[in-house]
Amino acid sequence: MKHELEDDILDVLVSKEEIQQCTQELADRLTEDYKGRRPLLIGILKGACPFLCDLMQAMPIDISLDFMSVSSYGASSSSTGEVRILKDLDTSVQDREIIIVEDIIDSGNTLFYLKNLLLSRGAKSVELVTLLNKPDRRTRDIEVKYIGKSIPDHFVVGYGLDFNETYRNLPYIGILKPEVYS
């Protein structure tokens, strides 16, 4: 019998429609805040791709786009605390207004590191936008100006979020059954 991804989902936490609404609201705020400017959106691979694509399509302003790939999880369900850059930017951030686009912020370690790295490279400003926020997991004091939705401390997958490179293609955010990752 074929294994279906949805068999591993305990519950849908954020529906496809809620994702679309949060994304549009964030895009509206960013469009207003950056009107007449040309921010550089930096998507954090791989998880932020669906959110980044939907977000930038809803922003009718001039933007630039680049990507970074970082890791602090590996094949684990919790952050190791060590941030490794797997793919760096192709674009200079010198004197640029940066918007880091992330799928989820939990401990804050990765974005704390990235924000400081980009500022040290001469970025004019660095703001963070995330679809999901897990404030109960925060170990770093980091300001997140643009938050789509705060969620409780569950292990979630879907809409770019994965466990061991699986579940990214679900169109919603679901709670993964504990027996799958423990």
UniProtKB/TrEMBL annotation:
Gene3D superfamilies documented for this protein: 3.40.50.2020
Chain ranges of the Phosphoribosyltransferase domain: 22-163
Chief location of this protein within or outside the cell: cytoplasm
UniProt keyword Cytoplasm, yes or no: yes
Subcellular location: Cytoplasm
Record CDD domains: PRTases_typeI
EC number: 2.4.2.8
GO MF term set: guanine phosphoribosyltransferase activity; hypoxanthine phosphoribosyltransferase activity; magnesium ion binding; nucleotide binding
Alphabetic keyword roster: Cytoplasm, Glycosyltransferase, Magnesium, Metal-binding, Nucleotide-binding, Purine salvage, Transferase
Any single Gene Ontology cellular-component annotation: cytosol
Catalytic activities: GMP + diphosphate = guanine + 5-phospho-alpha-D-ribose 1-diphosphate; IMP + diphosphate = hypoxanthine + 5-phospho-alpha-D-ribose 1-diphosphate
Listed pathway(s): Purine metabolism; GMP biosynthesis via salvage pathway; GMP from guanine: step 1/1; Purine metabolism; IMP biosynthesis via salvage pathway; IMP from hypoxanthine: step 1/1
Entry cofactors: Mg(2+)
UniProt cross-references to InterPro entries, sorted A to Z: HGPRT, Hxn_phspho_trans, PRTase-like, PRTase_dom
GO biological process, one term: hypoxanthine metabolic process
NCBIfam families given in the database record: HGPRTase
Function: Purine salvage pathway enzyme that catalyzes the transfer of the ribosyl-5-phosphate group from 5-phospho-alpha-D-ribose 1-diphosphate (PRPP) to the N9 position of the 6-oxopurines hypoxanthine and guanine to form the corresponding ribonucleotides IMP (inosine 5'-monophosphate) and GMP (guanosine 5'-monophosphate), with the release of PPi.
Protein family: Belongs to the purine/pyrimidine phosphoribosyltransferase family.
Protein name: Hypoxanthine phosphoribosyltransferase
Protein's organism: Urinicoccus massiliensis
Lineage summary: Bacteria, Bacillati, Bacillota, Tissierellia, Tissierellales
